[in-house]
UniProtKB/TrEMBL annotation, chains A, B, C, D:
InterPro entries: CTDL_fold, EgtB, Sulfatase_Mod_Factor_Kinase, SUMF_dom, SUMF_sf. This is Ergothioneine biosynthesis protein EgtB. Residues 166-301 form the Sulfatase-modifying factor enzyme-like domain. It comes from Flavobacterium segetis. GO terms for biological process: ergothioneine biosynthetic process. SUPFAM superfamilies: C-type lectin-like. NCBIfam families: egtB_TIGR03440.
């Protein structure tokens, strides 16, 4: 456990290695957090839910930090409002790293004591929480750098690769299936409530849709024909003048793509990424197919390889039967988002190894696309 | 069919009888349409989908109207943007009635000819379409009058009554149920795709929640405790300073209520109405219960009386398996809204008689509450 | 005095004669008031400042109206916020006319009693106040009708005519001039504080700029060259996509103009109207001239004919030396606007006869152009 | 000249010495620019207006910088929109300093050549331009640090001191005065157009209003009585919930003040600073006095000491008679702002030595108060 804990702490910092000091405090959009904030908030979590509660010798690193790096946990006190996260040049990056060091060391001492099952369960959540912030860090770093006029290079990592293109559609038989996380390994509360779901016959693609395939949609004026779009999606593309996936740039009639390795020519064979739900849905409509439901995806997921990109499903994020929120701040983790969000399944090249599983329920509002999201067809 | 057609046309006008000329052109909020617009748009529908298409002798009443009273049908041409509907004092109310008369008479002549099955199906849609606008007319009239400083009286109609308070919860057995409209009678496209759904054991209340019960939630500071709310709901009540259902006013420490009969003391025994999904959900959380899913509601609906108020369910509005949009403008009717909306089931005192049925899927975004909406608990 | 009072009351109603009932309650923009509101507010003024204060027998027509038709007078109590004026379909138009009748009759009885100088002074203000609302009524009616898709005709009145085109520039000698209203006749408080102003030699045009001349500016890409514009003006034309004066429409490469007589071809010989200060300034820059100051205008005004359109000057609206606000609500009339506004001098075809004079100081924010405003060059 | 140039370049960097790398890229509000941007933009100015135009050997440091650090000069090409200045973490701070060094050295070489009068005049403007950005740097640094939850200390500099409190009002005789910059020394174009202005008898205070005096206004509910405020000012304080000067914090019933030395108890004897025009005007109304005009200020300025804080006048920023814009980008410097701004006269502790003079016309929109602004009464 100590090794796993240390590895997670180390990984968060590795992700920030290629950054300049100047990059750490920037909030490029309301939905993006500065890297510094991720590093500090994932540290605060250990203070808040473990050290201050169960380690009687623990003294806070800094009272201010305890206040500043709280996130959406309404039960823990007055939060720093999200949009102002990007206005904090202080504490400095160096001090945030020193805060991390202080808490990591305190945690190591704490982990060396006798811990109850309950405490071990919270540590498991803390590790998974920090892993989630690692993935968000990658999204946010890409957004921060990718929206600057000079398109700076991060490093040559988190790359997708070609999907094998055959066989195309995998048939699945109708039946009553068991949905939800089984067994004793860790899962989030929203995966629980194992329950039966009846699913009719369907087919699901073995591969993600590629850039080449998505360009066909653009060329066919897919972004200009409302018949493929939800009413809200149509407003969204028109209000935001959206005509291609995020990070695509048409220069001299050729498609270029901002990647973590910089601005490069679009690789047509790679899976299309940075799609909103609206765009994924519109593509599937145009193609005469549809998106799978999250249940179909879970049932079929043993039949294909997944994990390059999170995959939009046509399921809204709702509670499983019997779901109930944990009391207190940890209960805010997932339950309070169960409206206005669509489910994504799978994982991405930015997901920490071992973090996801086939029952994992990721979710975003349908207009979000800075996450590493793609699209698999069903019919 | 002619009689039914004439009755529907007559009913729309009856609803507007108590209005002053001044009331007809007002758009009290972006989501509200002026009564004049409803009268004209439900007339335009007959012109657009029947007379101009199938009656070769038909000459448009007025080219401008054909343009002005189109609604959300992206396939029919450039629309008048919604928010500016309330800036049209012209055409006059008198002229809109004359437009109605002209089209009704043309339709009667048309209905007296030999009509194919296809045409009869569109007429059926037209009747249901106008009925929907009748219900919207009631909502919009209430909103227009209820937001004026003088609280004008409309008339003494569309009133709810006491729900019988026993027995409280009805138990339903788990099993695989058939969902969706069966038989040959009319239904909307979104009710089709009959399919099996597995549902676990559950209980559902025989009665809607009453004003008296809802006041308990307010008194218990339900509007001030985020643990009962979705994150989006919490933002919504705080940004809009919402502390009670719509049309409630606390005057000298007593609850008053704007009704179509004017401003009256709140009747504690009536079902609570004008709730958003967020409020219905928060109430059920506070009560230790939950909202039924739309499937549970449909399965149980034979066991209780319904129809006073539309009932929020915890189901998002999504396509049934096998759903496909009709080609062309009629296909825009329901399909394009299948995101970001929650399902309501049942009907209301403002629903035209015979318009609804147990498979009927009504839907609104979770913040809407000017519609006649209430709440039934499940567990 | 009684006759003058009755004539003013009658004129307000004459202006509304061509309206439909539907037109009276509409608020086409935040800066526009519904005609019904003008009729009621100019009536409320007599109640508030005379009848309730000096006529001990007077009983309010309606307590609600006393609240509803107050305008910007912060000293009189809680106002109806400006933007919601257009959401009041009640009281009805008929009732507003009956309110007018009631107050007019009460005033006639009051005017037949012995009145002090102080009271007569307030009556004079009341008459001038109602005249100002008559002019605003014309602006607002034009805006309400002119922004509807059917371009309804009001009536054939308030028309400008050709300006005599020679001689062009009138030279004025430098010197120390007396500025401000002199004599005992009525004027507004902002015209007082007679004071000396030194003005250098200048020349001022005998004529307003014509539509024909303004088209030259458009053709020369005047709206596209920021060198002619203030920084704020440049933002304003770009944010609002402004490429011509208000009410101009380019149809099939010809300029059409919405007038109170309907949509007609632009008459090139008439003075250009419905300009913002920004546009007037930009034109003068392009022409290598400038706008006169309000002092230059006042000094030169005996040398040319004025009164067709209000004329933008390059003077900001500021207090004259020695200006002081009247105590109480009447003091709010002019003083509180003395920032962020530019001065217009003269009068317009919509100004009631005898209302303006050469020392009259009209003012609007520099982006306003629904008023009847034009432009005279100086150098 | 070389020494003066080098001193100015050095001073800009001295001001940034106390900053952390993290502070340089932050844009705390739309009207604030990141320190990095000031350093780079004041460097770009030398490239744009001198090196690229008159030094044939000069090669741009970096083509991107030439684009990125342009400011409001519409004549020079596409600008980086102001609000996104704070989203540029790249180029790094180190690179901006190296850009400065490169350009400074190129300028030194250039200054050692034979320069025409015209070129020397542009150099003079460049020096004054960089001095203006030094003052803005101080404002922006204070705003960036003063809006962070930890109230970081900058350094103990730019401090005001006590004003001598007697004699209070200085009488000035009426007469015809000459206004505008005289002589051959440098001034901005907006100070030119020497002209005569007639001014009546007036009195002006020898001292700025102090914090102690301003607290009397707050205690007397000055922020809650609209009679002291312009209509726009009243909206501004209500919409922004303003109840004290900027950087004041009431903690446990005592006034604290964020200063460049950190959060300290308010020193009652110092001049009140960080006032908007609206607040300065309201105070003077409450006091039964008024603000001086810019002409009165200029005429009286030899009779009192000034230079601690910029002083709001009751004059709008308008062109002097005969003013004309320089052709090209340099002409955008002052002329395009001559609307919607009020004049401040004097100088502040943040003004570089020798930069201001009695004819200097500073200006801001009436709601701005992050600049070092105070208030002197007249009557």
């Amino acid at each position: 456990m100590i090794n796993r804990f240390l590895r997670v702490r180390e990984n968060s910092e590795q992700i920030c290695k290629p950054l300049f000091i100047e990059d750490y405090s920037l909030q490029a959009s309301e939905f993006v957090s500065p890297p510094k904030w991720h590093l500090a908030h994932s540290t605060w979590f250990w203070e808040e839910f473990l050290l201050t509660k169960y380690d009687i010798n623990y003294v806070l690193y800094n009272e201010d930090f305890y206040f500043l790096f709280n996130s959406y946990y309404n039960n823990v006190g007055k939060r720093v409002l999200r949009p102002s996260r990007g206005l904090m040049s202080r504490p400095s990056v160096a001090e945030v790293y020193s805060y991390r060091k202080f808490v990591t060391e305190a945690m190591v001492r704490f982990l060396n004591t006798n811990l109850t099952e309950d405490i071990l369960a919270i540590i498991e959540i803390g590790i998974n929480h920090e892993e989630q912030h690692q993935e968000l860090l990658v999204y946010d770093i890409k957004y921060i750098l990718g929206n600057q006029p000079t398109f700076p290079v991060y490093q040559d990592s988190f790359k997708t690769k070609l999907e094998i293109q055959a066989p195309n559609f995998i048939p699945i038989k109708s039946g009553l299936y068991k949905i939800g996380h089984q067994g004793n390994s860790f899962c989030f509360d929203n995966e629980l409530g194992i329950h039966k779901v009846y699913v009719g016959d369907f087919e699901i693609s073995a591969n993600l849709v590629s850039n080449r395939q998505f360009i066909d949609f653009i060329v066919a004026d897919g972004y200009k024909n409302f018949n493929f779009w939800h009413d809200d999606g149509w407003s969204w593309i028109n209000n935001n003048k959206i005509e291609s996936p995020l990070y695509w740039h048409k220069i001299d009639n050729e498609w270029w793509n901002y990647t973590l390795s910089g601005l490069v020519k679009l690789d047509l064979d790679l899976p299309v990424m940075h799609l909103s739900f609206y765009e994924a849905f519109a593509y599937s409509e145009w193609k005469g197919c549809r998106l799978p439901t999250e249940f179909e995806w879970e049932i079929a997921s043993d039949k294909f390889q997944w994990g390059q990109l999170w995959e939009w499903t046509n399921s809204a994020y709702l509670a499983y039967p019997g779901f109930s929120k944990v009391a207190g701040a940890l209960g805010e983790y997932n339950g309070k988002f169960m409206v206005n969000q669509m489910i994504l399944r799978g994982g991405s090249v930015a997901t920490p190894e071992g973090h996801s599983r086939k029952t994992y329920r990721n979710f975003f509002t349908p207009n979000m696309r800075w996450q590493f999201s793609g699209l698999r067809l069903a019919k």
